[in-house]
Design brief:
With 184 residues, the protein is of the alpha/beta class. It has a single domain, classed as P-loop containing nucleotide triphosphate hydrolases (Rossmann fold, 3-Layer(aba) Sandwich). 37% of the residues lie in helices and 23% in strands. The chain is built from 7 helices and 6 strands. It has a 6-stranded mixed β-sheet. Helix 5 links the parallel strand 4 and strand 5. Helix 5 packs parallel to helix 6. Bound molecules: guanosine-5'-triphosphate and magnesium ion. Guanosine-5'-triphosphate binds next to helix 2. Guanosine-5'-triphosphate (GTP) binds next to helix 2.
Length: 184
């Protein structure tokens, strides 16, 4: 795809990760649905399938695809990659760093979607959000961020794919905005 074609199409930004990781909450911060620091995690419903919306991202009209992370949906995406993984410019992968039990599944899910990205959107920019990095969360010896990276970095390096990462929490809205290039 050349640059001209690219500019004519709206940018496609995808956000994926396990169920309950915080994807929809993160998008609510970007759209202003959440505009002040909450006292406790807001009550959210699991996303059914994919929810599409639009945001301004680096001053450009951008289509956002919020991929609900429950198991049946995850299986569906991986079984039908051509339907979901085309023309992605930005691929955000959210890891809940407080969710010890889902970490191995999150590693597996990332591996699955990473293969699809390589095949269908090899130019996608990959961004990890290590989310629920709450101020009162004591990063104990479990170090889920380190464990996740240890498992997936070899594949990223072998494929020579660049990536960036951010630590985010709803208790610091700017941590989320910065990860999407908005304010400071
Ligand atoms: N402690 C904490 N909880 C959070 C944070 N962000 C989101 N949550 C909570 O995490 C839960 C799940 O949030 P959602 O945004 O619905 O998660 P999701 O990734 O969209 O889940 P699916 O739609 O099922 O894939 C909700 O109870 C949120 O309030 C955070 O930074 N810290
Ligand atoms: Mg959701």
């Amino acid at each position: 795809m050349n640059i001209t074609e690219n500019e004519e199409q709206p940018i496609k930004l995808v956000i994926m990760g396990m169920e309950n990781a915080g994807k929809t909450t993160i998008l609510d911060v970007l759209t202003g649905n959440i505009n002040e620091t909450p006292n406790r995690p807001p009550s959210m419903n699991p996303t059914k399938g994919i929810e599409r919306s639009a945001i301004l991202f680096f001053q450009k009209e951008t289509k956002v695809w919020d991929f609900g992370g429950q198991e049946t949906y995850r299986n569906e995406y991986l079984a039908n990659p051509k339907k979901y993984f085309y023309s992605i410019s930005f691929f955000y992968y959210v890891v809940d760093i407080q969710d010890y039990y889902r970490l191995p599944q999150s590693v597996m899910y990332f591996r699955g979607v990473f293969n699809m990205i390589i095949n269908h959107s090899p130019d996608a920019k990959i961004i990890f959000l290590f989310h629920k990095n709450d101020p009162d969360y004591v990063a104990n010896e479990r170090n889920l961020k380190g464990k996740f990276l240890e498992k997936i970095e070899p594949s990223l390096k072998a494929a020579n794919i660049p990536y960036t990462m951010y630590d985010t929490t709803i208790y610091d809205l700017s941590s989320i905005k910065i990860a999407f290039g908005l304010d400071s």
